[in-house]
Design a protein that fits this description.
Elements (H helix, E strand, L loop, with lengths): L2 H14 L5 H23 L6 H10 L4 H29 L3 H21 L4 H16 L9 H25 L5 H24 L4 H28 L4 H26 L8 H17 L8 H15 L12 H29 L20 H25 L4 H14 L6 H29 L3 H19 L5 H15 L9 H24 L5 H21 L6 H19 L3 H28 L6 H20 L8 H16 L3 H19 L10
Helix pairs in contact: 2-3, 2-7, 2-17, 3-7, 3-18, 4-5, 4-6, 4-7, 4-9, 5-6, 5-14, 6-15, 8-9, 8-10, 8-11, 8-13, 9-10, 9-21, 10-13, 10-21, 10-22, 11-12, 11-13, 12-13, 13-25, 14-15, 15-19, 16-17, 16-18, 16-19, 17-18, 20-21, 20-22, 20-23, 21-22, 22-23, 22-25, 23-24, 24-25
Length: about 700
């Protein structure tokens, strides 16, 4: 990268950081202050590598206090596990260098495997345990008696940084995850109202699709914040369950609104009043300032609309040519109203938590998805890359190659489970390269001439504050974080700074080469295909639905919704940048929520003794056929008779007995058929 390009890149980055919010400034100043406090404390304790204390502050820095505590907690666990592993491996195998690096590479592979099966911040802790053993073990190469001292020193430096970051994030103008959840949920409700208003009035398809993606993304953020908030304050525990349930209801409402938009009926005397009332309600909700300050009026209106939609239409009223279709759309409208009402109640539960009494619960007949093939690939790749570079180091005896080995281990493990590890690693490289000239000017030119902590603050703060502002900007967080970490690593602040460019450039070169080698590994060795991972998640969602059809035990609605939203959260980062194909996958995922809820409704109806036996038999036959289609039909293959059977059963059930219960069964069959026709490839077995 030439200086002109470097300058242009930096100017572009600064342009994207204009007009930071008050919250961004608080985060930036708090992070830099915590870093300086950690460095001062490391100086006072005479730690060997004080820069690690300050670097840790920037590594765990997050805008929300709970996120800092969560990342810091798992960083501490990962560091302790890695330190213990380094002591054990070095003590046992330290006399044989080839065996030592092989065992360390295998350890990194194991930790990468575990990390790939977990979620952040747990995944971060597992990956850290792997490469921490390398960071501690390699400097003790040939001197195994030093490994305990190195492990203790590193743990002390990490703990110091975590404590400084955690205390400042919690005490200095904190932004709490519990407050952020309420704020984001409000925004989600208003976005849902805007989406529904557009869907009910025939709004622009592209605009609705963009808002649909945003809502699905926000559910993912809500789920992550829920975990952070529980670590942030034990008092949030009673509100954790409402958050999970509310996210499921949010997805249900979104799916119902999409279905009403996709299957809008011609003018119908029964449908028009309900649809108009829903359109008026969501329009008012989206447009009225402070609409969510008091949810009671909205809940009352939604109750009234849902009750009206569930009323069996009078046969004398014009319902068009398809009475079952009318009942189906009314059912979807009632489901939307009920789901939105539950979301509003979830908001109230977050604002005014109550203690829940214990209750007995059954194990859901559903399983959590773990991507074992993807995790195995990541583990083999990280271990192989680390071992090959370590072999080069041992063969050439190039001392600085130890840094290259460490960076290959860090990058190939830490970014392995990302949907696009090459892009993430390249951003890390750009941030590292950008940090190099700044670290040279400050660490090799300015501070040796003007030593002292006061001059350090004067030189470093004007660089780190804009960097921290970049870390608060989602668009630049990766590059800015890499810049901050590697700026401090290259700078290597000590109380006595000296001009010594040789080791500086040798260390910098080993770091840059290590990152580039890791990127090469991601490209050439078992390259990741996000669609393979996405297909495995979609397959798991189809198996969930098949399990709902066939399993003897039927989970609660809330259990299914929680699992379904979790699946969608796993799917979204894999497909969100894939254009129409990705939108179809996400749309199918949300539609699967609707299908699952209708299956549960059919299962419940089949156990109702008031339902005629032939109707119960029809339901059982349909569910068996649906499970068979979900498990065995491949994309592009013609539909089996399942969809046609659903419509046939719906019509025959309505003809035989036009009561409220049987018409509801017919409506559920029609809803399932419509969803499968809207997303035919999603509800088909992939050929892989």
């Amino acid at each position: 990268m030439t200086w002109a390009r470097l300058k242009a890149y930096f100017e572009t980055s600064l342009a994207g950081l204009t007009q930071p919010t008050r919250s961004d400034w608080i985060f930036a100043l708090r992070t830099v202050s915590a870093g300086l406090i950690a460095l001062l404390a490391a100086y006072a304790l005479k730690l060997d590598h004080p820069q690690w204390a300050m670097m840790t502050v920037f590594i765990v820095a997050q805008p929300v206090a709970g996120m800092v505590l969560a990342k810091g907690f798992y960083r501490l666990l990962g560091t302790l596990a890695g330190g213990l592993a380094a002591i054990g491996i070095t003590t046992i195998f330290g006399t044989n260098p080839w065996v030592l690096v092989t065992v360390l590479a295998v350890w990194i592979g194991i930790c990468t495997f575990v990390s790939s099966l977990l979620r952040n911040p747990e995944a971060y802790g597992a990956a850290l345990a792997g490469y921490t053993a390398m960071i501690i073990g390699l400097p003790a190469f040939g001197q195994p008696h030093l490994v305990v001292d190195l492990a203790v020193a590193r743990c002390a430096e990490i703990v110091l940084g975590i404590v400084c970051a955690g205390v400042t994030s919690r005490l200095i103008l904190p932004k709490l995850a519990s407050d952020a959840i309420i704020s984001r949920l409000k925004r989600c409700i208003l976005d849902l109202a805007t989406y529904a208003a557009g869907a009910f009035s025939g709004g622009d398809t592209a605009t609705l699709s963009a808002l649909h993606r945003k809502l699905v993304a926000d559910t993912q953020t809500l789920g992550e914040m829920r975990a952070y908030a529980r670590l942030e304050a034990p008092s949030f525990a009673p509100r954790a369950h409402p958050v999970r349930r509310t996210i499921g209801q949010l997805l249900s409402a979104l799916s119902a609104a999409r279905a009403l938009h996709s299957h809008a009926a011609p003018k119908n005397a029964v449908l028009i009043p309900v649809r108009s009332e829903l359109q008026a309600l969501v329009g008012d909700l989206a447009a009225k300032p402070g609409a969510l300050d008091d949810t009671a009026p909205w809940v009352q209106r939604l109750d009234a609309i849902a009750a009206k939609a569930r009323q069996l239409p009078d046969a004398s009223v014009d319902q068009g040519d398809d009475r079952v279709g009318t009942i189906t759309r009314l059912t979807i409208a009632a489901d939307f109203a009920e789901a939105l009402k539950q979301v509003l109640r979830g908001l109230d539960a977050l604002r005014s938590p109550v203690t829940r009494t214990g209750r007995a619960s059954r194990q859901p007949a559903l399983v959590v998805h773990r991507d074992y093939p993807g995790a195995s690939r990541n583990a083999v790749r990280a271990a192989l890359a680390t071992l090959l570079v370590a072999a080069f180091w041992l063969t050439t005896k190039w001392s600085e190659a130890a840094g290259t080995v460490i960076l290959v281990a860090v990058v190939s493990s830490l970014f392995a489970a990302r949907p696009d590890p090459v892009q993430v690693s390249w951003g890390f490289f750009r941030g590292t390269l950008l940090a190099l000239p700044f670290a040279f000017l400050i660490g090799q030119i300015a501070l040796p001439a003007l030593p002292g902590f006061g001059w350090f603050v004067l030189f470093v703060v004007p660089i780190l504050v804009p960097t921290a502002l970049g870390m608060a900007n989602p668009r630049y967080v990766g590059v800015a974080t890499a810049f901050a970490i590697n700026f401090l690593a290259f700078l290597s602040p000590h109380q006595a700074m000296t001009y010594d460019p040789g080791p500086f450039f040798a260390c910098s070169a080993s770091v840059l080469v290590g990152i580039l080698l890791a990127i090469g590994v991601f490209v050439a060795v078992l390259p990741a295909d996000p669609w393979l991972a996405a297909n495995r998640i979609v397959r798991a969602m189809r198996e969930d639905l098949a399990r709902l059809c066939l399993h003897e035990r039927v989970p609660r609605r809330s259990a299914f919704e929680s699992l379904a939203y979790d699946r969608i959260n796993q799917l979204m980062p894999l497909v969100q940048n894939s254009g129409r194909k990705g939108e179809a996958a996400l749309g199918g995922g949300v539609a699967a929520v609707t299908v699952g809820l209708e299956i549960l409704r059919l299962r419940g109806a089949s156990q109702n003794h008031a339902i005629p036996s032939e109707t119960s038999l029809s339901i059982a036959n349909f569910l068996r056929g649906l499970a068979r289609e979900l498990l065995f039909r491949a994309p592009g293959d013609p539909h089996t008779a399942t969809v046609a059977v659903a419509r046939q059963y719906a019509a025959s059930i309505a003809r035989r007995n036009a009561t409220g219960d049987t018409l509801q069964i017919a409506a559920s069959l029609r809803i399932i058929a419509a969803a499968m026709e809207d997303f035919p490839d999603f509800f088909a077995k992939d050929r892989g």
